[in-house]
Request: fold
Amino acid sequence: MVRLLAGKKGTGKTKQIIDLANDQVEKSPGHIVFIDDDMRHSYEINHDIRLLNMEEFSIKTADEFFGFLCGIASTDYDIETIYVDGILKIIDLQYSDLPDYLEKIEKMCESYDVEFVISFTADPEELPGSLKEKLI
Reply:
């Protein structure tokens, strides 16, 4: 399952996604992965969560990132949830391509039995219906 956090810039999406990950790691026996565009929030994220700083990888395209996500999910079957903060900042993906890209990730969720929580900057009121139903 893919769940989404969307909001305009400065509305607290990053704090909310960090809180969700920190709450889950306290209650969940599975592994949690948090993907961010830098290490700014490393002290806010529970040390039991695997934090991946995308600055350390030369991944820029949507296809490269999808392969990266598949690699993460396929190497650790204990991963329950992968959190991605600011997907549109991490990869070169147009907002208009987001619904199809998230559908691709949804299919991966079924294959690897993993959940995704993905945040991005957008007005929730302007999201297409297929994305609105995934909002947290």
Q: What stands out?
A: DSSP finds five helices and five strands in the chain. Strands lie at 2-7, 31-36, 50-53, 79-84, 115-121.
